[in-house]
Amino acid sequence: MLNTFYLMSISSAIDNFKSQFDLNFIQKDRWRYMLQGLGNTLTITAVAAIIGIVLGVIIAAVRSSYDKNEESLKLRGGFSYHLLKFLNGICKIYLTIIRGTPVVVQLLICYFIIFAASSNGVAVAIFAFGINSGAYVAEIFRGGIMSIDQGQFEAGRSIGFNYIQTMRYIILPQMFKTVLPTLLNEFIALLKETSVAGYVAVTDLTKAGSSISASTYSYYMPLLTVALVYLVIVMLLTKLVGILERRMRKNER
Predict the structure, then answer these.
(1) d(Cα 128, Cα 192) in Å, to the nearest integer?
(2) Rounded distance, CA 187 to CA 194, Å?
(3) Model pTM greater than 0.90?
């Protein structure tokens, strides 16, 4: 009797899963919403991450250059000191504003105020998340640069490199190795932050799951599927960075 009961329960659960799967993904080709949402989420995350890295490198270079050379530049004075001081001030204002306000508010400001004439929600989301990510990446990179021993800068100068060449060929490669795990965490956070892109009419992964749930009045399967997709992407990113770290350690040997 018990075996029969268990078999009937399992069969009923399988039938219920099939009916829910058919309702949420097969009927009316609702799986296309999920595919479109995944594509938009990955596009926004990837391009925003690139923007964040570019901004982060520039801002970190300005901030660390000012912090490391403030005293010597101040003694010499001149245009270089005042220019670097001005750029450092601009960077600090940018960092304060971006890190001091919620990303969803920044997204809404970009969509409804700065780019009010644009109807391309994906492009606006890329801009907003890229600007937001740049602030956090900049501080990650700045911390990495400041952790490099001053002797590395002096070694670069001793072989004839100027400051920019020293940063490019000696400091930045070492910095990337140091900050890679922290940088991964920032990209994971960026991936999950894109879930608010639906506020500006972007069909991201989370918005797709919510739309399906609103149509079918079934919530557990679409939302659990969204959570599972995010989890798989994060696990793949973690695995990729682990491979990169191992290769970097081999290169150091």
Answers:
(1) 14
(2) 11
(3) no
